[in-house]
Specification:
12% strand, homodimer, DNA-binding, mainly alpha, elongated
DNA sequence: ATTACATATGAACAGATGAGCATATGTTTG
DNA sequence: CAAACATATGCTCATCTGTTCATATGTAAT
């Protein structure tokens, strides 16, 4: 947290480039939110849930069975996904159906897949 | 890890939908790799490094100064970014310049930004 | 109202993760 | 070769995260 000065003896990027880069950095809050968003994608259970919802809305117990995990574990993760506004849900009697909130989810995951498959 | 059967008394999605969803899930390895990739984006230090590299290649000490962090911390994170093949580097004498590996980085971060700004 | 079912939630615990510190490696200059 | 500089890396620790277990909430049927 202390001010850091002159880490390099001499700068390697031109000072005006450094100044420009500094100006173009989004504000701290956006950067934090962005990292928080990607953190949500950074778990294979949640990725699997999202993929499952690509096809169709599903209730909690169907997701649990599909992924061979406990109802509780899935419920906890759905909560995270919902807080990140990646999924939404609707109630139908005792059952609660979850579905993708919007198309950014598909796009982001798609780009990720592109990257890992070179 | 035990086989889980009939979590729901009755299924709420039609069985053929469930079967279809199951078939369309990517294999375990891809899902794992994808989560690993997003995990890398899920840290604000790394996001800030990537943003800095949007503009221009930079050496380690310039990044450290720009983000007001220690050389060690930056070096550790650059290692993570490099392993995920999001950045590459080149040596020029004592200095090592890091730059974005490809354009997926920009696209993925861009989509993330779109999402958080509604 | 009581029971059964679907989902949510709080506490706890094991494993992962990021930063700091000290130090090692690699490169250039004298 | 020695000294200085730029970067990398091993270790440690505090913190965060995901799952399990037990239990609570909400809904429908009898």
């Amino acid at each position: 947290m202390s001010e850091r000065v002159e880490l390099c003896q001499e700068h390697h990027a031109h000072p005006e480039v450094l100044a420009h880069v500094k100006l173009d950095l989004p504000n701290e809050e956006s950067l934090y939110d962005l990292a928080e968003l990607f953190k949500v994608f950074g778990d294979s259970t949640r990725i699997r849930i999202l993929y499952a919802l690509f096809e169709s809305e599903l209730c909690v117990c169907d997701i649990a069975e599909l992924l061979n995990m406990s109802q509780s574990a899935i419920s906890h993760q759905l909560r995270v996904l919902k807080q990140a506004r990646l999924v939404r849900n609707r109630r139908e009697g005792k059952t609660i159906f979850y579905f993708l909130a919007d198309d950014h989810v598909r796009t982001i995951i798609g780009q990720g897949m592109d990257h890992i498959s070179e």
